[in-house]
Structures are given as structure tokens and as C-alpha cells.
UniProtKB/TrEMBL annotation, chains A, B:
One of its GO terms (molecular function) is DNA binding. InterPro entries: HTH_LacI, LacI/GalR-like_sensor, Lambda_DNA-bd_dom_sf, Peripla_BP_I. SUPFAM superfamilies: lambda repressor-like DNA-binding domains, Periplasmic binding protein-like I. Residues 4-58 form the HTH lacI-type domain. It comes from Streptomyces noboritoensis. Keywords: DNA-binding, Transcription, Transcription regulation. It comes from the Bacteria. CDD domains: HTH_LacI (cd01392), PBP1_LacI_sugar_binding-like (cd06267). This is LacI family DNA-binding transcriptional regulator.
Length: 332, 332
DNA sequence: GTGAAAGCGCTAACAT
DNA sequence: ATGTTAGCGCTTTCAC
């Protein structure tokens, strides 16, 4: 059975399609009597307005739809962010298209192209490593863009990030204060902006204590829990193994903690907090960031752009918090 | 600056809009020469086809968009499912609109109405407690629906679930085999189908051992980690406290594990596995289900429906796996 | 308060 | 190989 249209409703109610349009969209100029007859026909036929057709003709531009493009929707961090974005959108009567990029520039382009082809009003983007020049033309066409978690190189748009470098520096400073001098760095691909920042923070802290960075203790490119576990094993097999670890995201932290036992005496600080992180042994300290705040802030920025804000692009930096666990506990 | 249309491209390339349409959509009947000129104009103007307008006119029906409606996108379980669905959709060149219901029937209706107004080809639905009669008319209009995780009462659609009852029964049987007789049940709202099933499995196991259900040991309506922690505290304050716990979802399990210490001697089995669950103490056994398989299976069913499969609705039941950890470890 | 005509951006069907 | 006409489902505009 085909979906009924306004014409069908009009016929059933004995009025013109235009009157149905007005009634269905709650516009003035429909007498209570006709409105009732229209509503009756609507219910009987199970009519629902086709918003795609509507948006095509409406003078008020926009589709009340935004696109959310993240690295990996399955990652709890982005999942929390996505939920927060969705809540803000829902509050505005806006829908959310989602896409994961896997950090592949090619998939990012495909997803974004499909989104803009659907005329999304805006894009909330966790940019991949690749360039983003291809966004220029959609933006001139009216698609608003806001970056979250990482900036997009060479793209003048609002950006919401956290103080990655300072957070990492504080984490490593904490380890140094515990007397550690051989602190390993376990990170994801160096191409990712957050990873470069966190690495810089690691170096900052070491430098402040006059400790040279030992390349043997620095591992990049850890893309999974098993990568991290393998890197840890390699580090511990070193002649001078590290006595403390700094892990730069939740996946790596989990990989490392999964490979450590209660008997292992290493101090670990990880970027990102997660449920039950406080119940592990050896104890795990974390640099905690707030994905919900990240998502909500970015969504607000995007919506104010969609609402017509044409001021210069802003950069919002949210703060991280060091949570020390185990002996030497401090709080913040 | 306004978005260019086919007319603009046609003018720039010195051809008719129809030729642009053919060229842009890769249809035959365009000479290489004109195709090149069109492509040139497209690039210069930054033209992108408006797929909403396109879908309006196309004979091939459909928008290549599906709607995913889950309880809570931030829950790691649904996040994994969502990612899996998105991957399947991406493979088919299909986009995904997401919405969380919070298990509120009203929000579910709003989200679904907004999705169908956008002419989604299908709906992947984790139904709320409420009724779903309102789906009848969209379905007659051609919107395909598949339920995941839970069935929708009184709705004849494909459904993908796990063997909740058997999984719960096996979990509790394991605890009984360890010699426990006072096994507490900590569950979410009883209105949720999975919870009723899991509770039935709990009773099955007890009954098989001739143990009557002790109402004092059964707690429903635990909706957060703190609810679970509070319920646990109440249980332990009982004159005859439980010696083992069965927790019926990841949130409750985390709440309980967060409140227990290594010194606590209780056996715990939880429904749902999660990262590092194997590193906790006291040890945590789990009934593990596979959210990725759940999502992928449901997506496959939905797409075959969208592709025209009109056979009778199917019910697919995936299997859970008991993972025993700590002393008494077995494997499956 | 209601309706007829035109057109949003695109494509099916029929020309040429 | 290319163009013309009509119309998808809706809303704008302007009549009455």
C-alpha cells in the first residue's frame, strides 16, 4: 500500500490540498470545523507529512538535521559524546545522522559527502588525520561545521578540545613527584593531534625535571588493546624497564591494565577515565575529561552558528582533571 | 552564497539540466566530451546533488536511510550495537539516523515520528515498555521494522534477541553448584522484557534445586550504579545476607562491583561482559552476549526486508556464554 | 477562510 | 547523444 499524500487527505476531507497543508502544519487560516475534518481524514488514512518534500519548498531553509562524524561510535568516549549531542539536538527538534570514520580520511569524505547530499544544516566533526579542504565548498553553501576533540588543520571553524598538553604534563609530573625517572609513554598514532599534544606534555614534564626523553621508552602507533599489551611486554623486557607508565587513551590504558597483575609494581596514569577504573590493581590514576561536556558545548556552538551567528570562529578548551588513585592519593 | 543547482551547472556547462543529471548520476547516454565539461562546471561551482530532491522524484523508492532507536546510545552495549549497525549500513551505502528513548514511550514516539517523516526505509528498534500500535500505519506505508534486544508486544516483526532466560538460569545454576543457597537477584525495571526473562531464569534455577525464591533477596527497579550499590548495602544489612549475587545488566554489575572490595567474599555473576571485567576482585563471572552480532544480524534482517523479503516474521535468538572467573573457573 | 497556480531540485518518459 | 515536458509532495503567493 502506498503512503498517502496531502492530495489523498484533501480528497477524503473534501477540501483542497492547501487547506490540508495549513491544518497539518498548524498554520492559521483554517476554521475549527475544517481542521477537525482534516484531522479525521489524517487519522483514518494514517497520513504523515513528508518532511523531505516540505524542506524542499520551504522558504525557511534547513532540514533540522545535523551530522555527527566521530572516529568510532563504539568507543565509550565517543558514545557518551554522541548521546550528549543527541540530547541537545532532540531539545531543538533536530535529528542526528551518525557516522564513524575509523580515522580513515577516505571514509570520512564518503560519510560527509553523503551527509551534505542530504542537506544537513551542520556537521559536528572529529576530524581524521587527513586534510579538510573539501569542506570549503559545502561551508560556502551554508553547511556549518564545528570540530570536537581535535582541530581540523587549515579549517577556520569553531573547535572544542581539552587541555591535552597540560593534562599530560600534570600526569607525568605526578609520576616524577613519586620519584620515577624511567616513565614510559604508550601512545596511539602520532598523526592524531591529541596524541601529539599529549606527547608534548610528556616531554614538557620530563624537561622540567631535566630528564632527557629516552626513545626506547616511547611507543607510538598503538591502535588496539593487544597492541598496547604487546608494547608493554616489550618495554618490560628492556634492560632498564620503566617503573611507571603514561598511557594516552582509554584503549591503550585498558590493554596495559589487562596485562598487568596485582603483584606488578608499576605506577600507571592513563588519559581518560572509565567505569571501575578505581577498582583495578595495580591502582590506576587518570587524566579525566568530560565527553558529555565536550559534546554539549560543541552542539551549542553548532546550533548558534546554524541560528545565524557569523562572528569569528572560536576555540573552546575544556579542562581535564588528574585523579590520583592508590598510595600517594591526592584528589585533583 | 546559495547552493548551486543542476540548472546552474547546466548553464555553466552550456548543456541542459537533464544532461547534467545524467552525467552527475553516472547514467549512460552522455558523450565523454560533454561529461568532461559538466564535471568541470561541477567542480568549479562546488555542486553537489540534492539527494532529498532526488529521492522525491526517483521511481526506485527509498531514501537509503534507516533509523536506529535504542534505549541509551551512551550505554557501551548499545554503542557497540550501533557501530555494528552503522558498519552494515555503510557497506550498503545507507545512512543511519540515531535516537535514544531513555525507555520513555513518549520520546520513542517522537523519535520514530521524526524518522518516518524523513522517509526512512526502515527502523531498527529497541522497543520501550510502551505499546507499539502506532507503528502499524507506517509499516503499511512501507517502513520496515526490526526489533533488537527485546520484542515489541503485539507487533509482528522480525526480532533478534539472546537466550536471556537460559543464560540467567545457567548463571544461577553455576552459583548453586558452588554451594550457595542465598543468592540475591539485582535487576532493572521489571517492565523491561529482558529483565522479566532473566528473572524467570533465576527462578528456574532455584526451582530446579528445590529452593524457594526469597523475596527479601530480590531487588527490582535498579536504574543506575548508585541504585545498585544502595540495594547491595541493604541486602548485606539483612539478618541472613546473601552469599552470592546475580546482577542482570552491566550498569547494575558495575554498581555492585564498585561497592565491593577485594576482601569481600561473595560470588558474583553479572549479565553482560565489559572491558577489564576479568581484572576485578572479588572475581566477576559473566553471562556474555555479543552486541556486535546482535546489531549485524538485525541489520541484515532489516535490509533483506527492505530488499523485498515478504516472508513471515522471523525470531532469531543468539546464544549467551557463561564465562566463569576466579576459583571454580571452567571456561564456558 | 479557502483555493488555484507556480515552483523547490530533481528525474521518468518521451521526444528529437 | 541530447533536450522537453511533466510531475514527485509540498509550500509560497496571490487570488477570491
Amino acid at each position: 500500500m502506498k503512503r498517502p499524500t496531502m492530495k489523498d487527505v484533501a480528497r477524503a476531507a473534501g477540501v483542497s490540498p492547501m487547506t490540508v497543508s495549513r491544518a497539518v502544519s498548524g498554520e492559521p487560516g483554517v476554521s475549527p470545523g475544517t481542521a477537525a475534518r482534516v484531522e479525521q481524514a489524517v487519522r483514518q488514512l494514517g497520513y504523515q507529512r513528508n518532511d523531505n518534500a516540505r524542506n524542499l519548498r520551504r522558504k525557511i531553509p534547513g532540514t533540522s538535521t545535523i551530522g555527527l562524524v566521530v572516529d568510532d561510535l563504539a568507543n565509550p568516549f565517543y558514545a557518551l559524546m554522541a548521546r550528549s549531542v543527541e540530547d541537545e539536538a532532540h531539545r531543538r527538534g533536530c535529528l542526528v545522522l551518525v557516522g564513524s570514520t575509523n580515522d580513515e580520511p577516505r571514509r570520512e569524505r564518503e560519510v560527509i559527502a553523503a551527509f551534505t547530499a542530504r542537506q544537513v544544516d551542520g556537521l559536528l566533526l572529529v576530524p581524521t588525520i587527513g586534510g579538510h579542504g573539501f569542506l570549503k565548498q559545502p561551508m560556502e553553501g551554508g553547511t556549518r561545521v564545528v570540530c570536537v576533540d581535535r582541530p581540523a588543520k587549515g579549517l577556520a571553524v569553531d573547535t572544542v578540545t581539552v587541555d591535552n598538553r597540560a593534562g599530560a604534563e600534570r600526569a607525568v609530573r605526578h609520576l616524577l613527584a613519586q620519584g620515577h625517572t624511567r616513565i614510559a609513554y604508550l601512545g596511539d598514532r602520532f598523526g592524531i593531534w591529541t596524541q601529539r599534544e599529549r606527547h608534548a606534555g610528556y616531554r614538557d614534564a620530563l624537561a622540567a625535571h631535566g630528564i632527557p626523553e629516552d626513545p626506547a621508552l616511547v611507543r607510538h602507533d598503538l591502535r588496539s588493546r593487544s597492541d598496547a599489551a604487546a608494547a608493554l611486554a616489550a618495554l618490560r623486557a628492556l634492560p632498564g624497564p620503566p617503573t611507571a607508565l603514561f598511557t594516552t587513551n582509554d584503549v591503550i590504558t585498558m590493554g596495559v591494565m589487562g596485562a598487568l597483575g596485582p603483584a606488578d609494581r608499576v605506577d600507571v596514569v592513563g588519559f581518560d577515565d572509565f567505569p571501575l577504573a578505581d577498582r583495578l590493581s595495580p591502582p590506576l590514576s587518570v587524566v579525566s575529561q568530560d565527553p558529555v561536556a565536550l559534546g554539549a558545548t560543541a552542539a551549542h556552538l553548532l546550533f548558534s552558528r546554524i541560528d545565524g551567528d557569523r562572528s569569528a570562529p572560536r576555540s573552546v578548551v575544556l579542562l581535564t582533571r588528574l585523579i590520583v588513585r592508590g598510595p600517594g592519593q591526592r584528589g585533583s
